[in-house]
Amino acid sequence: MTNLLAAMWTSETAHMSIGVHPDGEHGASVSLFSLSMAGIASRTAGLAVAQCALAQMNSPLWSESTGRLLTLSSGLPAALVAGTLVSPPDESLEELGITADFEGVFQARLTIPCPTGEHIAVADLTSAAVRNSEAYTSILEGIGQTMSFSEPVETPEPAPRPTSRIRDLF
To answer: What is the pLDDT of residues 2-24, one digit of tens each?
Structure first.
């Protein structure tokens, strides 16, 4: 797991967080949220997110997926793709110490074009708790509805420090 997180951190990933959630009779489920940036070839925002969604849905890494185009509250177009990733062969799972009743891995991915037109923001929510896929998809869509872009504000020059009034008394 450490190698996976280190690889993500050195890529174009800007943020990662790991969540542990109560999961009824299953004890707890673990999820990974990441936010990354990717360059795009298209200068049309809607076309860029649609191309990303189609590429993901047609990837051989997915055993099943659904996708839809959205318009976020910010007015930006977005694509939301959710589905189950192809499970590795049982032999590979056994080498990792994972039992054969492995459900698979669910992932929801939201792509949003950056206003500059040169990149897209990619938000991923991934979990082995496939049974919670609808909830995870709703969570990611909700996160997307709150996302916005702004130019960083330059730090203003610090104001000169006022002199101490104590000196005036002496």
So the answer is: 455 555 555 677 788 888 888 77
The token pair that represents 63 in the structure block: 């055993």
Number of residues written out for the chain: 170
* Closest to 31 measured CA to CA, from 169, 135, 162: 135
- Report the side by side order of strands in the sheet with 119-127: 13-22, 28-39, 119-127, 105-113, 77-85, 62-71
Q: Give the mean model confidence (pLDDT) for residues 43-55.
A: 80
